[in-house]
Amino acid sequence: MNSLLLQCRPGFEGEAASEIQAHAERLGLSGFARTQASQGWVQWQMNDAAACETLMQSVRFAQLIFIRQWARGQFVDLPEKDRLTTLLGAFRAYPRVSQVWLEVPDTNDGKALAGFCKKFQAPLEKGMHKVGCLRANAPLPGRIQLFFLNSQRVFVGLVEQTNAAPWPMGIPRLKFPREAPSRSTLKLEEAWHHFVPREQWDDRLAPAMTAVDLGAAPGGWTWQLVQRHMRVTAVDNGPMDKALMDSGLVDHQRADGYVFEPRKPVDWMVCDIVERPARTAWLIEQWLGHGWCREAIVNLKLPMKTRYAEVQQILARLEDFFDDAGVRVSIGCKQLYHDREEVTCHLRRWN
User: Fold this and answer.
1) Which parts of the chain register pLDDT below 50?
2) Which of 64, 104, 134, 239 would be a feasible disulfide site paired with 110, CB 3.0-4.6 Å?
């Protein structure tokens, strides 16, 4: 088990490799990336299994930005027939687990394997139970993740369930609500799933809270806030969805999102404006620095090149700004499944 399998958005393999390399170097560990453009995954090769385990135990999955899912393990070649026997043999090198997931690359070729994985899941679990390497519902920390490149080549990976994505392939299964004005609504919903523990939604996304949506039109993000029964100030020079306005919970302010200032502090600020990352960072500094909001979800649009470096620079800038201002703010950042050439930041002010 001397390599990591890192899943990412196709086209962001370089960023995923740079990210894991930075964490490895910080820990004094060496390794190298094997990848191809747009394949949606990276293999990070290390010297031995101990180094892989140290890296995964020393880095919290929540710290990772461009990596959707990860596991440590090795590739295994499967015969055309009786794949199960080969896999059960490979599992001897792994601890007993309570879960097994079947995953594929987030590409057209990967999606073509969905039918195979669905058929293979039941006999796989049955075989694992029989030999004792799977104990469903047992209090065991590990999970085996099988990442299929095709029906005859698979990465057999191991993760600790509390330090990995809680969804197969790192993709939450969200359904687009027909009533929403735009598909961008799923970005905000996914951000909440990622940054706000589900058991805290009733307190942190509570009815009667107040929110400001900068760059709101036509209202995809505002729709999510209204579904939580929040009172929303939607800031945009463009028109808002009529049904949202009829809800009675939305105040439409025709203004520039980068100029607007709230009359009084609100619980949430959200922003999905297409703008340079540096200008969006300034916006974050204003809202959290002045205490205009308690929490914020903001998208950073990335340049075509130096995307990893740009994100690191912006995050370092924000940390320095809040430290100098004496403002305690926690910062999270992730490239969500519904993000494209962008990442989503979550900020929470504590004082």
Assistant:
1) none
2) 104
Same domain, 151 and 254: no
C-beta atoms surrounding 30 within 10 Å: 12
Q: Out of 81, 301, 305, 334, which one is annotated catalytic? A: 301
- 272 annotated to a ligand binding site: yes
95 known ligand binder: no
Flag whether 241 is marked binding: no
Number of compact structural domains in the chain: 2
* 11 is a domain residue: yes
Are 294 and 351 in contact by the 8 Å Cβ rule? The answer is no
pTM of the model: 0.96
pLDDT, position 1: 86
Does residue 119 sit in the same domain as residue 222? Answer: no
CATH number of the domain at 164, please.
Answer: 3.30.2130.30
Asked if 134 and 191 sit in the same domain, the reply is: no
d(CA 283, CA 265): 15
Q: What is the pLDDT of residues 280-332, one digit of tens each?
A: 999 999 999 999 999 999 999 999 889 999 999 999 999 999 999 999 999 99
The pLDDT score that the predictor gives to residue 304 is 87
Q: Is 301 a catalytic residue?
A: yes
Other C-beta atoms within 10 Å of 60: how many?
A: 10
40 is in an annotated binding site: no
State yes or no: 184 annotated in a binding site. yes
Helix H or strand E encompassing 32 = strand 31-34
Residues across the chain: 351
Q: Which of 170, 200, 234 is the last residue of a domain?
A: 170
Question: What's the mean per-residue pLDDT of the chain?
Answer: 97
